[in-house]
Amino acid sequence: MLKSLIKSKAIPVVFLALFISSTAFSADCVAIIGGGIAGLSAQHELAKNGICSHIYEAADRWGGRVRTGPSVDGIYTNAGAEFVDSTHSHVLSYMREFNIPLNPRTSPPHYQSDHFIYQGRVFTHDEVNERIFKDNPLAISRLLADEGNAAKHASLVHMNLDQYLNSLGFDGFAKSFFTTELKLEVGLDTKGMSAATFAELFRFDPNARSLRFLPENDEAYRVMGGTQRIVDALHFQHPTGVDLQTKLTSISSSDGKTFHLAFATPQGERNLAAHDVIITVPFHQLKDVHLNVGPIPSDVSAAISHTTYGKHTKLVIYFNRRMWNEAGHTGDIVSDKGYQIFDSSHGQPGKSGSLTAYIGDTLEPAQQEAKVKQVLGDLEKLFPGISKTYTTSQAFSYEHSYTGMAGVSENALIPKRPTQLGKHIFFAGEGISMTDPGYMNGAIGTAKDAVDKISTARNAETVIRRSRCIMQAIAPALH
Questions:
Q1: Portion of the chain with pLDDT greater than 70, in percent
Q2: Whole-prediction pTM
C-alpha cells in the first residue's frame, strides 16, 4: 500500500523521508556507507521503495567528489565532477526530477578546438596524427599486430606503460604525447600504470592515419550553477538522513543475515546492526576496515588489496575577458607540461571568464603561482596578450580522483569489479560501473542496481511470509 502511494506520488518522497528519518535506526533500515552521490542516490531510491536508510559519512560534508567551489566574478567552478553526457540517463532523470537546468556545451561551428602544445610548439589534432604516423611506422605496425593478438593483449595487464611503449619503439614526440594524455586521464605515474590502459584508451586507424582517444564521451552538458546542485537536491529530500564524521571501522556477522557495524566518531565508538548494507566508498578505503563476515571472495579481496586512485588538480585561472572566444577558439588545449585546459566559464553570463587547467597530480599551495605562470606562458602562444587579462586563480586538488589498480588499467578491470559480498552487502559507486566509470552517471546507476536487488529480495521475503501466514490460517481446515 505504502509503495503504491509513493509511486503514484500521493506521498511526496521528501515527506516520506522526513517520516522515515525521524524514526530510530533499526536493523530493518539499510546502512549506507559513504555520503557521495552514490550514497545519496541509494538513499533517495530506497525511500521511493518505502525502505528506510541512513548514511554514514567519514568526512565533514556530504557530496564526496561532487562539489562546486566559491564563485569568482560571478563564475562558478566545479571542484570535482564536471560534465554530463547526452547518454547519461540517470543524471538527466535527476535533472528533470529536481528541475535543475543544464547548459549545452556547444560552440559556434567555426571555432577552433583541440590544440596541443608539445616541445614548445603548437599543433592541431590533424598535425599530431600526421607527426605520430610519419615518425613511427614500425611502432604502429607492431601495435596493430598486438591489437589482433588476444594473448598479447591479456599480457599487457602485467606490463607497465613505459615498458610497452619502449618495446614498440615509440619515443620522442609520440611517447611524450601518449604518456601525457594517459597521466592526465588516469592520474597515475606511467611507470605504475598498466600497458593495458594504453591498449584500452587509444585506437589507431592506419587507413585514415588517425588515432582516437576512448571512451568517446560527448560531455554535452554542464549543470547550470554547478554539479553540487545535484547532491544538494538529493540531501534536501532526506535532510536528517546523514551522519557526518562517522567512519566505518568494522563489519561483522555470525549468521550472514544481521551485520554489526562499528564506527569511529569524535564522540567515540558507535555501533549498530543492519540486515542490508550498501558500501559506496572506494574499495581502497576498506583496507582499514575489519571485515569478519565469513569467507571473502577473491574478486572482493583483490579489489580491496590492489585498488588505488589517481591524483588530480583543477587549477582555475580567471580573466577579465575571454580572449580565446574572441580569437574563435573553444579554449580546449593539451600541453606536454602536464595539463589539459578547457573553458570552465562556457555558457556563463558576463565578460569575464575562466580556463581550468586539469593536472594529472596534486598541486601544493606553494606551487600554484608558478604553475599559473607556466600555463599563461603556453596560452600566450595561442592568444598573445592574455596574461595581461589574468586576475586570479584557485586550485582544487584530489588525492583520490579516478579508480585504477597497481599495474592494472581501470578499463581492463571492468569484468572483475565486484558488486556484492554475500546476499546482504552491496557495492556502488562510479568505480565499479561497467558503463560509466568515472562519471556521476556510473555512481547513480550502480546505486540504483543495489537498491533494486534489496527491494526485490525484500519483496520476495514478504511474499514468502504472507504465504506462510495463509498456509497457517487454512491448515486447520485442511485437516
A1: 83
A2: 0.83
